[in-house]
Design goal:
By secondary structure, the chain is mostly helical. It has 24 helices and five strands. It has helices at residues 11-32, 36-39, 47-62, 81-84, 88-99, 106-119, 121-133, 136-145, 159-162, 170-192, 196-209, 211-226, 234-261, 274-278, 282-291, 302-318, 325-341, 344-347, 366-390, 394-432, 434-447, 471-476, 493-496, 504-509, and strands at residues 450-452, 464-465, 468-469, 481-482, 512-514. The strands form two sheets. It has a three-stranded parallel beta sheet with strand order 4-1-5. It has a two-stranded antiparallel ribbon with strand order 2-3. Helix 7 (121-133) runs parallel beside helix 10 and helix 16 (302-318) crosses helix 19. The relative contact order is 0.13.
């Protein structure tokens, strides 16, 4: 059978082999990412924004303020970011910092939490795949393939979203774990009625870590509830799904309510690329799927081939016996999120029926595509392992695995090697300039008002220490600045980037005192 241990391999042997594969993957992933523990101390991406939010939470707690509704003056001329932004990942770092008695620096805690959230992703893939499929080998294959995803900065579940040279999507890294845990628990909860409340709590926590990943979890569970599944009636699964939804909504309500109450004062920025709001359209997504760029950018499309093979296996198997529910759910999930990634250019106002607002960054549903595609690919790879093991072709099994993995491992290793090399050079440049930077920041604080070191759309993007733009340092020092739009939620965001440095009236209007 596709999703059960073959007769030639006992459950204990399969469990031992799966555990060994998982251990090797986790050690290898941690070693490959180890440079992050040092180079991440001089960030240049969205992690600058996340670290500053964490610092603001700590300050609010220490001064008796409400950390869920506190003013952040650093960006976009000021905005209460934590009132309307998903806070769980930031509160996790702040909580660990306080739990350690402030003996470890906040930057060190943040660096380690970021590192572990990426290094341990294969573990969550293993757990979810095992819960859904019941197969240790499929779970091991999922853990092995999870770090192999590669795109051209499409904000999915890949190193490029999380590493130093990437996008700095720290909350998404934590939310990916919670999404996988939610799917794994929901698979059993809808079928046996147990742990419904725990599943709902996990879905709520996923939303608090990343609103769109909470949406991915919720809609995927709805799909699980309505799909054909003969062992449990659809009506019963829907009732159980409603209980999960109620628990998740209650837990996430303190974050969802401000979004509803403040929607008229939350900016829909004209400066953000339209594809972030609307996604990419059917033709680009279909082209990326066929060429492999959706999973295998810059290399042979091996992961894409395995995912398509996993889909083909379901159709081949369904012609002969009853469809395997786990395999069916994974295939439906992959197909559904690919269709959702077509976005507004294809679906238009129909997306409203699925709860997609005009203010949702629809391109982020690529996370759902990646999760289910990796699980499909894991089914194909584990099936190959079983078929060769049944025939006792162990040399062929090892050779086929290495043949499939080599293009992915080679490309991922090069990606991380470049990340480490660039990051070390940047760290050295920033350490050498640390005293000068501190002197500038001290003067800017003393002068008050706002600071200015160029806009991201102009010379400011090239005015750097190492690879870090100078305006970045105003953010981490919590000095108000006319600078990069680390967020665009404030209505003043679209005004700030119109600052004209050659106009003295603008300097007075924006209160720029340090140039």
């Amino acid at each position: 059978a596709i999703l059960t241990v073959s007769d030639s391999m006992t459950p204990s042997r399969a469990s031992t082999l799966a555990g060994l594969i998982l251990l090797v993957v986790l050690i290898g992933n941690a070693l490959a990412l180890r440079a992050e523990l040092s180079i991440s101390r001089a960030d240049l991406n969205d992690n600058v924004f996340h670290l500053t939010l964490i610092e603001r939470i700590v300050q609010a707690v220490e001064h008796g303020e409400n950390p869920l509704d506190v003013w952040s003056p650093e960006w976009s001329l000021g905005y209460p970011v934590l009132r309307t932004y998903q806070p769980l990942a930031h509160f996790l770092v702040a909580g660990i910092y306080f739990a350690l008695g402030k003996a470890v620096s906040l930057l060190t805690v943040f660096t380690w939490v970021r590192f572990l959230s990426v290094a341990l992703l294969p573990l969550s893939f293993f757990w979810a795949a095992h819960r859904i499929t019941g197969s240790q080998l499929t779970a091991a294959a999922a853990a092995l393939l999870a770090p192999m995803v590669s795109t051209n900065f499409l904000y999915g579940i890949e190193y490029g979203s999380f590493t130093w040279a990437g996008s700095g999507l720290f909350p998404q890294a934590l939310a990916t774990h919670l999404l996988l845990l939610s799917l794994g628990l929901a698979w059993n909860a809808l079928r046996d009625g147990r742990r419904l409340t725990v599943t709902g709590a996990l879905v709520g926590l996923t939303a608090l870590a990343h609103l769109i990943y909470g949406y991915l979890a919720a809609v995927s569970i709805c799909l699980l509830a309505v799909m054909p599944d003969s062992p449990v009636s659809r009506a019963l699964r829907i009732r159980r799904m409603l209980w999960i939804a109620a628990v998740a909504a209650v837990l996430a309500s303190f974050q969802l309510l401000p979004l509803l109450l403040d929607h008229q004062t939350i900016n829909h920025s004209r400066w953000e690329p339209i594809w972030k709001w609307d996604s990419f359209g059917a033709l680009p997504v279909f082209e990326w799927l066929i060429t492999g760029d959706l999973l295998d950018f810059g290399r042979l499309p091996v992961l894409t081939f395995l995912a398509l093979a996993g889909a083909g296996l379901w159709f081949w198997r369904a012609r002969r016996v009853a469809a395997n529910p786990a395999h069916q759910f994974i295939l439906l999930g992959a197909a559904f999120w690919i269709l959702m990634m077509f976005g507004r250019p294809f679906w238009g106002p129909l997306l409203t029926l699925l709860g997609v607002s005009q203010d949702m960054h629809l391109h982020r549903v690529i996370g759902g595509v990646h999760v289910f595609a990796v699980l499909l690919a894991a089914i194909a790879l584990s099936t190959l392992w079983r078929e060769l093991a049944v025939r006792k072709r162990f040399f062929a099994l090892v050779a086929a695995t290495l043949f499939l993995l080599y293009p992915m491992l080679r490309e991922r290793a090069l990606n991380l090697a470049n990340n480490a090399r660039w990051g070390r050079a940047n760290l050295a440049a920033n350490q050498a300039a640390a005293d000068d930077v501190k002197g500038v920041l001290d003067q800017a604080r003393l002068r008050g008002g706002r600071a200015y070191a160029g806009l991201a759309g102009g010379w400011g993007a090239k005015f750097k220490i190492g690879d870090v733009p100078v305006y970045t340092f105003f953010s981490t020092a919590q000095i108000p600045a006319v600078a990069f739009l680390y967020h665009s939620m404030a209505l003043t965001s679209d005004v700030m980037v119109r600052f004209d440095e050659t106009n003295p009236a603008h300097h007075r209007l924006f209160n720029v005192r340090t140039f």
